[in-house]
Specification:
Blueprint lengths: L2 H17 L3 E5 L3 H13 L3 E6 L3 H14 L7 E3 L2 H6 L5 E4 L7 H9 L3 E4 L7 H13 L4 E3 L7 H11 L7 E8 L20 H5 L25 H18 L6 E7 L13 E7 L4 E7 L11 E7 L2 E6 L2 E6 L6 E4 L21 H17 L7 H19 L5 E4 L4 E2 L3 H4 L19
Parallel strand pairs: 1-2, 1-4, 2-3, 4-5, 5-6, 7-10
Antiparallel strand pairs: 7-11, 8-9, 8-15, 9-10, 11-12, 12-13, 13-14, 15-16
Helix pairs in contact: 1-10, 2-10, 5-6, 6-11, 9-11
Length: 440
């Protein structure tokens, strides 16, 4: 979707929203659940009627915040089980911002219940989950937007339109993506009983049962592969998806990755602290590197993508972009635009990534426009599935010693690799049942 269509669809969403107040529910009321929901409240006159979380304290806090922020000042109903919330069949939109291992089952049940869905990235923890989520969205004719909001980041939309779409960079055959934040948990605290306000059995759900540890909840569950896909699944997906969107790339032909826990062996975390991956799209190679230690080669770009073209190089991140011409020509720099004066509540909202708020609002407006038009949003579930699958394949390659995995999107299998194909779906802990793409 180009910038003009995006703006016109946003206007259409606004006009349609005046005629109907959509009823909204949120599953997962933690950090990003609130960030997404409160941006949606800013984007359209919605009524948040239901919240769901297995942490009763977090749930109560979110209900209080929503009652202060939504126009009706009503406090949403509170549910501890998403199935009970969806059973009411009274929601137009369902937002899902749980830990990654809890994305697939609620999303599938939400579309069955008639909801259009905004689900956080990565869409699932294994590839078959993603297949099932895509199949469910199409079967029940629901609009599903994935939280890869780089596609709705204003300065990145501008860079795509001005430099990629026009061919200003010339031919691009190589793109670097990278992440050098020290975000991997370094502690090794002892296991302990879960707090009384957390239903840890339900929190664990279909994932393997680990002893409770304070690293697990809230927010730092990304330290463990049982609940997600490490830094690749959390941060690479944003940049890989951004590159795919900006360049119009589909499925990678093959994926390979190496790395491991090479530096910080004392942490309880079981995610890699060092990893590189190559996503081969035929005429374009996209490479990924992360290190949760040391320094970034370019301190201005600790997380981003560098597009190497014949005519110019483009460096892009959540904080801005730099166009660097080859030879003569003027460099162009652009910083992210904050919208703190337009949305003053952003100034005091706890834990909000203020530089990302405009992108989330734009993503929500695009989602609402797609709902009105019954069309695919900019981060449609199929695009989320492609980017998620590519990142999971990188982790599978790393797990299998770095061998190249050749992907066949027609069969949804790795070519000639029985061992890799045996890892496309993770076992679910009973009594939870893994979704089947052929029977959603």
């Amino acid at each position: 979707m180009d910038r003009r269509l995006f703006l016109s669809s946003s206007a259409a969403a606004s006009a349609a929203a005046q005629a109907k107040t959509r009823r909204v529910g949120l599953i997962g009321t933690g950090w990003y659940g609130k960030a997404d929901l409160l941006r949606l409240i800013q984007a359209a006159p919605v009524e948040v009627v239901s919240l769901c979380d297995v942490d009763s304290r977090m749930l109560a806090d979110a209900a209080e915040i929503v009652s202060q922020r939504q126009a009706s000042r009503r406090k949403p109903r509170a549910f501890a089980d998403y199935r009970e919330m969806l059973k009411q069949k009274d929601l137009d939109i369902c937002l899902i911002a749980t830990p990654d291992h809890w994305h697939a089952l609620p999303m599938i049940e939400a579309v069955k219940a008639g909801c259009d869905v905004y689900v956080q990235k990565p869409i699932g923890v294994d590839i078959v989950e993603g297949q099932a989520m895509l199949a469910a969205a199409r079967k029940y004719n629901r609009v599903v937007q994935v939280g890869t909001q780089r596609r709705s980041t204003p300065h990145l939309m501008e860079a795509k339109e001005n430099f990629l779409d026009t061919g200003a960079l010339g031919k691009i055959a190589f793109v670097e993506t990278y992440f050098y934040y020290h975000m991997r948990a370094k502690e090794n605290p002892p296991d302990e009983p879960p707090p009384a306000h957390l239903d840890y059995e339900m929190w664990t759900g279909p994932a393997p049962m680990r002893p409770y540890n304070k690293l697990v909840h809230p927010r730092r569950w990304r330290a463990f592969m049982e609940y997600g896909n490490g830094i690749v699944g959390d941060m690479c997906i944003h940049m890989l998806d951004m590159v795919r969107w900006m360049m119009g790339l589909g499925w990678p032909r093959s994926v390979s990755s190496t790395g491991g826990i090479l530096m910080d062996k004392a942490s309880k975390a079981n995610t890699t602290d060092t990893q590189s991956a190559t996503f081969d799209f035929g005429g374009v190679q996209v490479v990924w590197t992360h290190r949760s230690w040391g320094t970034a080669p370019d301190p201005k770009y600790p997380w981003g993508a560098t597009f190497y073209g014949e005519k110019a190089t483009l460096k892009a991140s959540v904080m801005g972009y730099d166009l660097l011409p080859v030879g003569k020509g003027e460099a162009i720099h652009k910083d992210v635009k904050y919208e703190l004066e337009e949305y003053p509540e952003d100034k005091t909202e706890a834990e909000l990534e203020k530089h990302v708020a405009p992108a989330i609002r734009g993503h929500m407006r695009n989602f609402l426009a797609a709902i009105d038009q019954r069309s695919k949003p900019v981060a449609d579930i199929e695009q989320g599935h492609i980017s998620t699958t590519a990142c999971i394949l990188a982790n599978l390659s790393q797990k299998l010693g770095g061998r190249t995995l050749v992907w066949d999107p027609a069969t949804h299998k790795v070519a000639n690799d029985k061992e890799a194909n045996g890892l496309l779906a993770r076992p679910y802990r009973k009594p939870w049942t893994h979704p089947d793409p052929k029977n959603v």
